[in-house]
Design brief:
single chain, Rossmann fold, 5 strands, globular, binds adenosine-5'-triphosphate, binds magnesium ion
């Protein structure tokens, strides 16, 4: 088995995450991609962070129509600060040694990997697939994925300013955000 892991805050999930997961899944012939929202990201502040249950629900709405996408609440259930090393250890235990685990990550996030807990061990435990993002050198990249200049922080800013977020994320997620008055 080949499993992709898409970790993040997903505050909220958007088409940048979904396109990246889908294309990597296809290119690396993965059996599935699991989206894992963090409870608390040790490197991010919690300003305007939607409740974990809201973020989880939005990921479920966004991924429901793709049979290759799964959602795991492992980090939310564990609670507190989420460390990827703990999650990968749990997944290796669950799936066994015959499963290859690939952590899908944007260049911006990978750039900070040195500051992650136990990053040396983590880099040995699973392979990293680094995708391109604005402002990061992509000249050496062998294959390129469709690149969408969308970020959760921009979406949150738009909501605060009353700008449209339509076409940046799935309609069901957009409706959920408005219904629950998130990011205002
Ligand atoms: P924020 O703006 O709040 O930091 P974000 O849009 O970067 O949010 P995260 O939840 O921080 O989203 O990202 C989770 C993962 O998805 C990271 O590895 C990040 O690099 C990647 N990612 C985010 N946006 C995109 C995008 N548009 N294209 C490809 N990868 C992305
Ligand atoms: Mg980010």
């Amino acid at each position: 088995m080949r499993i992709g892991i898409m970790g993040g805050t997903f505050n909220p999930i958007h088409y940048g995450h979904l396109v990246s997961a889908s294309e990597v899944c296809n290119k690396f012939k993965m059996d599935k991609v699991i989206f894992i929202p963090s409870a608390l990201n040790p490197l991010k502040n919690t300003f305007n962070l939607a409740d974990a249950q809201h973020r989880l629900k939005m990921i479920k709405l966004a991924t429901a129509d793709n049979p290759l996408f799964e959602v795991s609440d492992i980090e939310i259930k564990r609670g507190g600060t989420s460390y990827t090393i703990d999650t990968i250890k749990a997944l290796v235990k669950k799936y066994g040694k015959d499963t290859n685990i690939y952590f899908i990550i944007g260049a911006d996030a990978f750039w900070e990997i040195d500051s992650w807990a136990s990053s040396d061990t983590l880099l040995k435990m699973c392979k990293f697939i680094v995708t391109t993002r604005p402002g990061y050198d992509v000249k050496k990249a062998k294959t390129k994925i469709t690149y969408l200049e969308i970020s959760s922080s921009d979406i949150r800013k738009r909501i605060k300013s009353g700008y449209p977020i339509k076409y940046l994320l799935p309609e069901r997620v957009e409706n959920y955000i408005y219904k629950h008055k998130l990011y205002r």
